[in-house]
Design brief:
The chain has a nine-stranded mixed β-sheet with strand order 6-5-4-7-8-9-10-11-12. A three-stranded mixed β-sheet has the order 1-3-2, with helices on one face. 24% of the residues are buried. It is built from six helices and twelve strands. By secondary structure, the protein is an alpha/beta fold. It folds into three domains: 42 residues; 69 residues, Ubiquitin-like (UB roll); 129 residues, Cell division protein FtsQ/DivIB (Rossmann fold, 3-Layer(aba) Sandwich).
Length: 249
């Protein structure tokens, strides 16, 4: 009886091993077939890129986005690295953010969020546009935007205002000014990183200096204007906000 039980147990073990080997063989065959199928599909026209669509452009030429993305027509969409394409598009000066996605097996859509001009900047006869982050967007100007006038060469499109300290100081002042006062400033004269004058819409000149202690300087300006109660002045100096000085006309 003992020998029969041992023999039966051995038969069961052999059968389990045979079934295990069979299952493993079937799984391996399926994986190989899947890999071959993917290989064939990946190199077939079934997933060859036919179209790149662009959304969200206003100032920017959609063709410039397509060229920057560098997604060659005919390339398998399964092999495209869309994250790399997004980074290449975001290197364009006018692009704040880019998102690329597959909309079907043959098409890619790139949606861009453009940078918006917030400031004009001028040096001599050259004019450029800046966005709120201080990125130089393009040559030219937009009517109605405040202007920074600097005595130093302006950075190139795609560069940042930090390339030029006087321009960077003026941009920081614009960013940090309170809404009502910022709305009144029509021009920022940036002769140096420590030299900044604000020209208000009513003709008042404010000697502002560095973009530091901005809240104190704004309060000092408001206090002087309140004390003057409509009295005309040519300029107000808030570079030392604890002791502001005004100049009569």
């Amino acid at each position: 009886m003992i020998d029969e039980r041992i023999a039966e147990r051995r038969r069961q073990v052999r059968e389990q091993r045979r079934q295990h080997r069979l299952r493993r063989t079937i799984v391996l065959c399926l994986l190989v077939l899947l890999a071959v199928a993917l290989f064939v599909v990946e190199r077939s026209d079934l997933v060859a890129l036919e179209e790149v669509q662009v959304r969200g452009t206003s100032r920017l030429d959609p063709q410039a986005v397509i060229e920057a993305a560098d997604l060659p027509i005919g390339t398998s969409t399964l092999r495209l690295r869309l994250g790399d394409a997004e980074e290449r598009v975001e290197e364009l000066p006018l692009v704040r953010e880019a998102t690329a996605r597959r909309i079907d097996p043959l098409s890619i859509e790139i949606e861009v969020v453009e940078r918006v001009p917030a400031l004009n900047a001028r040096h001599g006869d050259r004019r450029v546009l800046l966005d709120r982050d201080g990125v130089v967007l393009a040559e030219g100007r937009v009517d109605g935007l405040p202007e920074i006038v600097t005595a130093h060469a302006l950075p190139e499109p795609g560069e940042h205002v930090d390339e030029e300290p006087a321009l960077a100081n003026a941009h920081q002042a614009w960013r940090r000014l309170s809404g009502p006062l910022r709305a009144e400033v029509v021009r920022y004269d940036a002769d140096g990183p420590d030299e900044l004058d604000l020209h208000l819409a009513d003709g008042l000149l404010v000697h502002f200096g560095r973009a530091e202690r901005v809240d104190e300087k704004v309060r000092a300006l408001g206090a002087v204007l309140e004390d003057l109660d409509g009295t005309e002045v040519a300029s107000i100096d808030v570079r030392a906000p604890s002791t502001p000085v005004f100049t009569p006309p």
